Amino acid sequence: MNNLIKPKRLSKGDTIATISISGGRSGDSDLIWRYKLGKKRLEEIFELKVIETPNSMRGSDYLYKNPKARADDLMWALKNPEVKGIIANMGGDDSVRLLPYLDFDIIHSNPKIFMGYSDITTLTIYFAYAGVMSYYGANLLTPIAQPGNLDNYTKDAIWKTLFSTDVIGNILPCNRYTPIEWLDKKEDDIIWKENTGYELIQGNGVVQGRLCGGPLCQIMGTHIYPNQEFWKDSIIFLESYSPYGSVLAGLHELRALNASGLFHNAKGLITPQLSSEEKSMLLTFLKYEVEREDIPVLTNVDFGHRTPMTILPVGAMAEINCSKATLSILESGVE
Residue 21: what pLDDT? Predict the structure, then answer.
């Protein structure tokens, strides 16, 4: 994962393509309003020209039945010289079905910003496999099109990571957060909770490693699943500990990841907000099943399924400082 190619930074006036590479809800009649809201924000706040990939607005039914069309959209955007970046409209659960239709050489030869989270992680791992940095961060429908306003934390992360060649530096925790909201609400109707900041639940010292992670189990057994050398000296971000509301299911996923060598080779772990039951499960798992009580674990980091979100460049060198309970990215996200 060393020396991934960094895409060129975005500038005001650049063209970006929005893509439905996982779920296709942006093209469904009941959510087109939300797509238009997110597109408007990209145009007005970041002064970008926004175009749609050819199949992105054809709706959930068509895109589920035609994974090749979704893959073709990505190849189209990468080969299109007008397009400088690509933002996923939303996640889903079946982007692994695109793998037979993706072209390694096109991704490697056309390094462009590609950003999304949740099921989009399959594609960010593929980009790393192809030697290109990509970005675990905001999808268009959420949080960019979050009802009310685009929050300043997410907005600043986009400016700092995708538009600037400066070192990203310390990633501060957000001041407040809210669950993902799909209904059309006014800003005053959004319920925000005060954030308590990062929490170090085990570990000492300062560790550095390259960022990688997300929901990874769906791609296990495929040709792009990282080998043990890939995980060496990494800082892993793990998105979910209770799939379908089950902590036991989360433990089963951790065991599968452990069998792949992930935990034995990693330098540190970062997670979103965890419940007390999830923390207990993770610490017990690391102690008795992995024998890694030494590995630093920083929780309540602002990624995953809530608003706001930071951006994690996949392959960038990061640092966890245990005494200060801080997370830093030690390089720029773009060239």
Answer: 98
Cis peptide bond prior to 308, omega within 30° of 0: yes
Closest CA to 169 of 1, 332, 5: 332
What are residue 207's phi and psi, to 5 degrees? -125, 150
Note if the bond before 226 is cis, omega within 30 degrees. Answer: no
Contact yes or no for 139/320 (Cβ under 8 A): no
Q: What are the E-state strand segments in 214-325?
A: 234-237, 268-270, 297-299, 306-307, 312-314, 317-321
Looking at CATH, the fold of the domain delimited by 189-329 is given as: Glucose Oxidase; domain 1 (3.50.30)
For the structural domain made of 15-167, what CATH number should be given?
Answer: 3.40.50.10740
- Between the alpha carbon of residue 262 and those of residues 109, 229, 287, the distances in Å are 28, 9, 15
- State which H helix or E strand residue 126 sits in: helix 121-129
Secondary structure (3-state) at 34: helix
Q: What is the pLDDT of residues 208-224, one digit of tens each?
A: 999 999 888 889 889 99
Handedness of CA 157, 332, 8, 216 (dihedral sign): negative
Domain boundaries, the chain: 15-167, 189-329
Q: How far is CA 177 from the centre of its chain?
A: 17
Q: For residues 88 and 70, is the Cβ–Cβ distance under 8 A?
A: no
Contact call for residues 178 and 192 (beta carbons, < 8 A): yes
State residue 333's pLDDT score: 98
Task: Report mean pLDDT in 10-residue bins for the chain, 335 residues.
Answer: 92 98 97 97 98 98 98 98 98 96 98 97 95 98 94 98 98 95 83 96 98 88 86 91 83 92 93 95 97 97 96 98 98 98
**CB atoms closer than 10 angstroms to residue 96:** 19
